[in-house]
Amino acid sequence: MLSSLSIAQTYEVINQENSGTSYRGLSFQDAKTFVVSGSKNTIGKSLDGGKTFTWINPKVVSDRDFRDVEVLDKDNYLAMSVDAPAYILNSKDGGKTWNKVYENNTPKIFLDAMYVDPKTKNIIVLGDPMRPDKPFVLKSSASNLKKWEEDLYVNKQLLRLKNPKEAFFASSGSNIYSDEKQTLIVSGGEQSNLYYYTSRGGQLYILDKTKSSTSGINGMDYNPTYNVGYLVGGDYKKPEESKHNLYKFKILNGAVSFVDSWKYPEGYKSGVTVIDKDKVVVCGYSGVDYSVDGGHNWKNITKDSYNTCKVSPDKKYVILVGNNGKIGKINL
């Protein structure tokens, strides 16, 4: 299952032990160590860049779908299950044991994504609205995981969705980016919008989509070092269609500025990872695509389906996770 992309790049499927599991959570601890999470109470860890895996089923809960996982620091992890009862679990020993740090039994609860600010270690969790036009937002900090607060504000701005039938896709745990200066939230469903908040105010950017309620933006990656971000999506019910599946943006003078692409990746995409100012990988049911010129041109790497992709901290490889227990790797 190894295919050559160029002299420097190769793709391979590195694990499919849990063929009945759907993976959507993925987070790196360091250049060799990463954690994956998914359905059937499954969490996995690799210490050697994906050569071998240790599989964990947290005993404090059962039959949960862990759609997102985040590394707080060395051997300190969070795992998020999505629907009622929704849990956030914490492990301080590298995944050996887990404890509940948050529980919500509200019938309509549905958590979509977690984001951890690498500098402040502040944690923000985004969920679908349980009241019209009000996203569910949960906040905590790595320094006090016993304290979780529901909040209607980010960067001192009141959160409100433009369309009451708007929500978020929990396809890759990447609907939100948040640091001390700014927060980005992207939605889909009946309408697809990018919300940008700073302490000076909030801005709304309406995104093109098809009429289907199963379309819109599914995932996002913004890299402040390069000041470049990508939104990816499409219609997950029509994975071969490429319409409105990618937006590229920068943040300039306190506003989001969109950058045109010449071509677009193939089909529906749910995950994206920025490698550097020019290189980016996107993934979805339709396969994996790679650009080396800032998203202007795309090369299809594989037609294999994946939900989430992330580049390693040393920028030497990308890990991909998907349905049917599939974990892939691109050596850059």
Automatic annotation (TrEMBL):
<protein>
    <submittedName>
        <fullName>Oxidoreductase</fullName>
    </submittedName>
</protein>
<dbReference type="InterPro" id="IPR036278">
    <property type="entry name" value="Sialidase_sf"/>
</dbReference>
<dbReference type="InterPro" id="IPR015943">
    <property type="entry name" value="WD40/YVTN_repeat-like_dom_sf"/>
</dbReference>
